[in-house]
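Hey, weird one. I pasted the YigZ family protein sequence into the form twice and got a warning about non-standard characters only the second time. First submission, copied straight from the form history:
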Amino acid sequence: MSDLNNDIYYTIDSPCEGIFRDKGSKFIAYAFPFNQEDKLKDIIAHCKSLHPKARHHCWAYRLSPDREVYRINDDGEPSGTAGRPILNELLSSNLTDIMVVVVRYFGGTLLGVPGLINAYKNATQDCILNADIVEKTIDEVFEIFFQYPNMNDVMRLIKDYDWKIIEQQFEIDCRIRVAIRQSEVKFLKDRFKDLIDIKYSPIEG
């Protein structure tokens, strides 16, 4: 799954599950929409409450539209055999703003390093196959300022280009806050450049 526009990214919009079994061991994968690192402990606690007798609760997450923020944890498995294979599946699926926890029940037979890597990979892969993957855009937020007589012009632009209205205030002096795809920001600047009665301002953060 690849994107042609650099202001598009892919994530999931609801939790999902997957499973893989090998030599008596069971690997249950849970994927969650995830865009706040302070939710990490809550998700891990939730999975442990579902499976208090499981031996391992290994995980990986990937954050932000630029996909550069990530963490992994092997939770007692040999280094590199759990968190990294989970993360690699997120990378190969081109997903971000997602966390996957794989819960392992030990079946009595050691799987070895290759076996563990394969198990955590396949559990995550099965989970992603069951996911509802959604396309999202990287947006920039602007405030547009105008007089009431200019409202039709502004609203027509918003409708034609499907800009998302975040907030609006209609009085004599009107203000609309909109989210605009990064790839369309140049159009906004070009379109409003010569309009004396319509101003805009970017909103940081």
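That's the output from the first submission. The warning seems to come from a hidden character in my clipboard, not from the data itself. The first helix runs from residue 40 to 50.
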